[in-house]
Amino acid sequence: MSGILYGVGVGPGDPELLTLKALRILRESDVIAIPSETKEACAAYRIALGACPELERKELLPVPMPMTKDPSALERSHEAAASAIAEQLEQGRQVAFVTLGDPTVYSTYLYIHRKIAGMGYETAIVSGIPSFCAAAARLNQGLVEQAQPLHILPGTYHSASGDAITALRGTKVLMKTGKNMASVRRSILESGQEAVLVKNCGMPGEAVYHGAGNFPDNPGYYSLIIVKE
Fold first, then answer.
1. Helix, strand, or coil (residue 7)
2. pTM of the full predicted structure?
3. Over the stretch 118-143, which tens digit does the pLDDT of each residue have?
4. In angstroms, rounded to a whole number, what is the distance separating the alpha carbons of residues 199 and 11?
């Protein structure tokens, strides 16, 4: 009988935000897949370890994911990861793939999930607290109220351009904006909207910057911006 692949969301950074279900699945799994070369370099693993020390005794399966938009390189890495995980599933082993935040929101895990499911294996997703929800809680404020819409935009793509920031009503969350900070900051300032940047929410080095004019030039990969009209 084949094993099951679980995509486990470990939340944004604070180990205390790991869900009870995620903790149970991690403890029950035979193998922990990490999207990195080593456990030391894997933020998702470090977060999970903070809530589940038993991970130190688990077998790890590194499945590195390159930080690139090159379709060919991404496809090769996804194929290699799916193949390595399928080998474990064929042995009837349960595999937990740890991923930051929630597995359904801009997660590399989804590519592996679809490939494994397409190969006929059983898959399941374990929700995690999204970074933008944790950031709003850190700011001690809500994201939206009443009829206000909420827009989640990837900051490294065109959808977070000035036109989108200006045209979309309600609250905009710009995720992973580090490399495009100059243009994103300019667009927010030109729109005249309020904005807050949260860096490393729940992680070491957490910082909050109010007002686009105060945003650092290179806030890092684990940063997001909340823009409100």
1. strand
2. 0.91
3. 999 999 999 999 999 999 999 999 99
4. 15
Residue 86 · residue 121 · CB < 8 Å: yes
Can you tell me the distance from the alpha carbon of 131 to that of 100, in angstroms, rounded to the nearest whole number? 8
Which helix (DSSP H) or strand (DSSP E) does residue 126 occupy?
strand 122-126
Query: For residues 35-54, b (16+ Cβ closer than 10 Å) or e, as one string?
Result: bbeebeebbbbbbbbebbee
pLDDT category at 156 given cuts 50, 70, 90 is low
Give CA–CA dist 150/96, Å, rounded. Answer: 30
d(CA 28, CA 107): 23
Q: Cβ–Cβ contacts within 10 Å for residue 70, how many?
A: 10
Nearest to 9 by CA among 108, 92, 94, 85: 108
Residue 5: phi and psi, rounded to 5, are: -100, 125
